Amino acid sequence: MTDITAGEIPVFDSIAAFREWRKEMIRQNKTVGFVPTMGALHEGHLGLVQTAKQECDVVAVSIFVNPAQFAPHEDLDQYPRTFDTDYASLVASKACSAILLPKVSEMYPVGITLDRSQQRGTFVEVQGLSHQMEGIPRPHFFRGVATVVTKLFNIVQPDRAYFGQKDAQQCVVLRAMIRDLLLPIRMRSIPTRREADGLAMSSRNRYLTPEMRNVATLLYRAITAAKEAIIERGVSDREEILAPAYKIIDEVSQEVKAQGLPFDIRLDYLSLVDVETLSELTTLGKSQAAILSGAIYVGTTRLIDNVLINTNEL
Amino acid sequence: MTDITAGEIPVFDSIAAFREWRKEMIRQNKTVGFVPTMGALHEGHLGLVQTAKQECDVVAVSIFVNPAQFAPHEDLDQYPRTFDTDYASLVASKACSAILLPKVSEMYPVGITLDRSQQRGTFVEVQGLSHQMEGIPRPHFFRGVATVVTKLFNIVQPDRAYFGQKDAQQCVVLRAMIRDLLLPIRMRSIPTRREADGLAMSSRNRYLTPEMRNVATLLYRAITAAKEAIIERGVSDREEILAPAYKIIDEVSQEVKAQGLPFDIRLDYLSLVDVETLSELTTLGKSQAAILSGAIYVGTTRLIDNVLINTNEL
């Protein structure tokens, strides 16, 4: 086991060694908060770590780019791996007590291929919540997330686990998973951190060129306009709610074209769902808790965002 | 929390109350063995409890007839529920420290229907090991088993878990699940207990009439004859190995018919698989560890059994 030296954080790339650290926390009667990440840490992640530190005695952060949640055509190989800066950020945060950096071979003992039809081993699926919204373009995604989070929970055995609300559906899926599998873990979802202009912080933002970055706020502006239709104008009809969002996305796409910028804006979807069932709503009930979300491509980079309606919790 | 009175065993029908018992065991620094059952306890189960008690400080037994592992046409409603005699057997065993008797509504918080297409909630599937052998006639079965055992493990958090080798494929599936999900649990598989005439003990044996019980050993005699072909005659070809087994089953079926008994014997399958991959073997390698198994119907009662080749462990 790595020693905990002042100002430094032990990094465990072996599950067995991490378990020893965890046992020591039990001996010391310390509550453990857990922030699972895929690295490429930004202020959003560090905010989760800070909140965890406020609520728990010690905080463990995992960094693991999970193959099972990528499809063969997606960006697994390209996904940013920035351990040195991640480590420096966590040290600077003064809120992280241990880093779990597991190997793919330990996390997937029988291996993991991205070709779902060839996958072997144990998988966790949350039925009823995994195949709408983000689950339509990414039918494999939430099975991969639920599986890796189950494994990480079994290693870390946290008292509380922290997730960002930017991944709204992930929060709903994992809260259901914790409940269904009777995991003795308190799920905490934390509001999305945004840049000054409203862009949701995301590890994938670094794929954006400056020109792309300039227009990337369009999704947030679109869903915010839709939320205003609900909150300020009392609109309840789905099409009326989403109309201003579609309008903004359409206008910005046209502008990008008109300016001859070397990329396209393409809307993947806009969605308005009930916060519990994740079923699409044709009419929003008075004070019904809902998620207004969407995904767009800016060039080849896919960005997601959401705003919550009549709730702060996921 | 129920008091532990001398000679009595606390019975927890609330998960929260069981968790308090479990926490007390942690405080007392006691290792916990776990025997999950569906009740209708027989000597096979009690043997698991005894072995667990030899290897752990305390033993928890769960009794839960798991709906998710039954198909709509199977015997969920008819499955024997005999809590009073189960409780008496566990008290008499002097080896059980706690009984978990959870409610379906707590185990499946969003409910559970036997119609798989309508099921919602979180499920665990062990791919590659769940859809051969018992998984052919019962395609839903191991998903139901893996799901409920994951839930039970999350409640009981045992150091060691005990399963009977009569359910050979279940042992292989659950050992893979524990490994894949990185559960900090030691899996123990215990040899099948048999009646004096060789019949594997099973809760479903009580469905048999005396006339059925008389012939029910045919499956064990069949797979034992096949095993003898391997061990005593060095046979390696699948068809040659299984030939004496088919012969016995055919002969007994004919006898039952000739005697005009009021039931039929029907072979479901015979199987010879590698112990790790559970793939059917056309040739058994020299000293290759394998499972020789089968399922038969005696009347409407389905019985399974197996013998191990070149191994004692599952």
UniProtKB/TrEMBL annotation, chains A, B:
Gene3D superfamilies: HUPs, Pantoate-beta-alanine ligase, C-terminal domain
Any GO BP annotation: pantothenate biosynthetic process
UniProt KW Nucleotide-binding keyword: yes
InterPro entries: Cyt_trans-like (IPR004821), Pantoate_ligase (IPR003721), Pantoate_ligase_C (IPR042176), Rossmann-like_a/b/a_fold (IPR014729)
Domain of life of the organism encoding this protein: Eukaryota
Keyword tags: ATP-binding, Ligase, Nucleotide-binding, Pantothenate biosynthesis
One Pfam family this sequence matches: Pantoate_ligase
Annotated catalysed reactions: (R)-pantoate + beta-alanine + ATP = (R)-pantothenate + AMP + diphosphate + H(+)
EC number: 6.3.2.1
GO molecular function: ATP binding; pantoate-beta-alanine ligase activity
Pathway info: Cofactor biosynthesis; (R)-pantothenate biosynthesis; (R)-pantothenate from (R)-pantoate and beta-alanine: step 1/1
Enzyme class: ligase
PANTHER family listed in its UniProt record: CYTIDYLATE KINASE/PANTOATE-BETA-ALANINE LIGASE, PANTOATE--BETA-ALANINE LIGASE
Family: Belongs to the pantothenate synthetase family.
HAMAP family, alphabetized: PanC
Stated name of the protein: Pantoate--beta-alanine ligase
Name of the gene: PAN6
